[in-house]
From TrEMBL:
Residues 1-24 are annotated as: Disordered. GO terms for cellular component: cytosol; nucleus; TTT Hsp90 cochaperone complex. This is TELO2-interacting protein 2. It comes from the Eukaryota. It holds the Pfam family Tti2. Belongs to the TTI2 family.
Amino acid sequence: MEPHGSRESPPREGSSFPGRWPSSALGQAFSHILHQFAGQESRRGKARNAALRDLSALLEAKECDQLFEGSDTSLRGMPEMLGQVAKALEKYAAPPEGPEGGSDRHSEVAEKAAAVGLLFLKLLRKVETAKNSLVCPAWKAGLRHLAGPVYIFAVTHNLEQPWTSPKSQGVAGQVLALLLQVTECGSVAGFLHGENEDEKGRFTAVMGLLKPDLNKDSWKNNPATKHVFSWTLQKVTRPWLSQHLERVLPPSLLISDDYQTENKILGVHCLHHVVLNVPAADLLQYNRAQVLYHALFNHLYTREHHLIQAVLLCLLDLFPILEKALHWKGDAARPTTHCDEVLQLILMQMEPEHRLLLRRTYARNLPAFVKRLGILTVRHLKRLERVIIGYLEVYDGPEEEARLKILEALKLLMQYTWPRVPCRLVVLLKALLKLICDVATDSSLTPESVKSALLEEATDCLILLDHCSQGQVKGLLAKIPQSCEDNKVGNYIRRVQQVSEGAPYNAT
């Protein structure tokens, strides 16, 4: 497999590197292995297989116990050389570049990863032995150079991906566990940001290794890079992430800006993690929050429900940060916010939408937007009314998620905008009564628990509507229980009347 040209390559003959390498027989053996990995194109496959065998034999040799002694001048530079060997091994086991590589190539990668993982286990055990020895002071330097490439290898093959197999995942898991043990870290998060405030952590080193593969020209060369970056980013939380903002924000935006939906969603998840774990002051600096907002807003024009869900959740957490920069003077109208802009677009798309998955996604997030805007939702009342009534009329499948969330949004809307509710009394009352009749007489496969939840929510909305209209609902419903042929419908209407007559009520 070809090494990725964007990453640092092992030293080649005639380069400036060999002068740094140790002059001992052990050093020359490792140098020979590096040259085998960097051999000519036609010889790479066989040379690399030979290099793996040579390295395995070398690590088992007794002379290899001297790796971290550091007292012999001929062994100086050994930690750096081990780091180069680890990088070469990690690249060797990386998945194939680009879209090529079907199941055959993937199985080949899994086999390589299992073989490389066993070599990393031997290397780490050498480090652990040296760590427990009093005559091997160079183990820290060796571990510093090994930790980054070993970590990237372990994460690449530890997660379930097309290029992994149960065997390669198991070996990679062992490598990661041993790496944490040798570095005395209780978790991957501790490994990355440090176990305490005085410890630096290795996130900077890992990002330094990933950086060449995270620019716009190279990030798709290795399909594992985006997953390693995303998984690693999720492990670094507040307060450590803010100091790495300049390292993680550009690749997150880059991945989210791709044309493939899978990559867009992955990038949005990375951006959401940044929003949640970086202080608002840092995001507002240099207009970063606005950049995030516009990158996310553009995704709202897509028709992929998974992407829309990820974007809306991220935006809801970004709004409080954006609004910190807004200043309202009490003698003027409140300025429109980014939340207003997003809700306006969502409602415009909700109204004609006919695809159930998208309707559910929009409806699922509508209550959060109403709650976020509060009384300012009145700016969107006309369109909200049309959307709510339209969604209440349409059956949404056995779970009825869309209609349940629309009823929740309606309750919130009436609580926040109650002075405007009486003029909409008749329209809302008709829609709620029609819903109760439809659900009560529904003979479909909808579970009884879902029907009951719908009827309860609709009844709560009627009770709240009566409170907002100062008892007008009670008068309009007065004659229905006597003339209603369906007992279930009549029971719910009587319940509304009883609560309206003074019984305690708590819709929230």
